[in-house]
Design brief:
The protein is built from ten helices and three strands; from the N terminus they run αβααββααααααα. A hairpin with a 3-residue loop joins strand 2 (63-66) and strand 3 (70-73). Residues 1-9 have low confidence and may be disordered. It is mostly helical. Helix 4 runs antiparallel to helix 7 (148-156). The chain has two domains: 12-73, Winged helix-like DNA-binding domain superfamily/Winged helix DNA-binding domain (Arc Repressor Mutant, subunit A, Orthogonal Bundle); 78-222, Up-down Bundle (Four Helix Bundle (Hemerythrin (Met), subunit A)). A three-stranded antiparallel beta sheet has the order 1-3-2. The chain has helices at 12-24, 36-43, 47-59, 78-102, 105-123, 127-143, 148-156, 158-168, 174-190, 194-222; strands spanning 33-34, 63-66, 70-73.
């Protein structure tokens, strides 16, 4: 069956959102080549907004570019992935710590709403939707912690984190485990327990790395 990305996109911003969503959900795989003409046809728009969207995604770390093959979904080796998870652990741990100190009731309600939506999507086995909500949850976590420099650092990593997160979700049971770990983080944030929130966030990233590392080692072995 031919894959499609049918939509009513009319601008580079919509093209950007559609292509990014396809990467985050695993529709496009790590290492997969993205061709401007094919994407333009699937999206029903001209090549110019597609090209602009691809350039933006490259800057954000979602894509790499080869002189001969053009744009491709970034693919990280084991050491690169380990470095990314180490940085992510420190940053997300601090973000959780700060949120437990500063989050107001409105923010907590919104984070809980995201978790409930993810739980519903998980129950319906809609993993693409779960992945989308999961990324929104992490984005809100980063941008609401009250430290704009920390938020910028996390947002600068969002491309590589999203791509590596997709690889962990190929392992049976990991999406459900992720949901449970998010619940533990939120419980600590709601109880205003900064150290517990930090510890829960760090454990979440460590567990993700254990799964991602296993997947990457298996890929190397299979090559």
């Amino acid at each position: 069956m031919t894959r499609t990305l049918q939509n009513d996109a009319t601008s580079d911003e919509v093209a950007y959102q559609k292509i990014k969503s396809a990467i985050v959900s695993g529709y496009f795989k790590a290492g997969e080549r993205l061709r401007e003409l094919e994407l333009a046809e699937k999206l029903g728009i001209s090549r110019t907004p597609v090209r602009q969207a691809l350039q933006m995604l490259e800057r954000e770390g979602f894509l790499g570019k080869s002189p001969y093959k053009g744009f491709m979904v970034r693919k990280y080796n084991l050491k690169e992935a380990e470095n990314i998870f180490q940085i992510r652990s420190a940053l997300e741990g601090l973000a959780a710590y700060l949120l437990a100190q500063t989050a107001d009731d409105g923010l907590i309600l919104e984070l809980r709403r995201q978790l409930n939506l993810a739980s519903d999507a998980l129950a319906g086995q809609n993993l693409a939707k779960v992945a989308e909500i999961n990324n929104e949850f992490h984005h809100l976590f980063a941008t609401s912690c009250g430290n704009s420099m920390l938020a910028d650092m996390l947002l600068n990593l969002r491309g590589c984190i999203s791509i590596l997160r997709v690889s962990t979700w190929t392992v049976s049971g990991r999406p459900a485990q992720t949901q449970q770990e998010h619940e533990v983080i939120m419980d600590a944030v709601e109880r205003r327990q900064p150290e517990q929130a930090r510890a829960a966030a760090v454990l979440h990233v460590e567990n993700s790395w254990q799964v991602a590392g296993t997947v990457l080692r298996r890929e190397v072995f299979e090559l």
